[in-house]
Amino acid sequence: MSSTQQPVRSASSVELPHKSSRPRNRMKLSTTVAAENFAFLETMVSLGRTDSIAEAVDLAIARLRRVENRAQLEAATVAYFDGLSPEAQQEEQDLARQLHLSAESVDFNLEP
Known about the structure:
The protein contains 3 helices and no strands. The chain has helices spanning 35-46, 53-82, 86-103. The protein is elongated and about 55 Å long.
């Protein structure tokens, strides 16, 4: 092996951060949940999607928050467009049509 090459380290030799080095922004929560929800959380841990029940709860809540945020954004967008004057609505439609036409020539997969 040349002096510039580093030996390949096995996964067991890779140092992981200690739990004490994780951010301390967690709050203690003690509650009960439906049995099927607890089983779902345990499955997330057993499948390796999360390291703990607490992380599984955080992930599930993050997903719910994203869904609710999207619904809120959708409602605000509808309210915005419904509140436009007919002239402004026509201008938005013209801009959308022009953007659509210009995007047709873009290869989003970056294929030649």
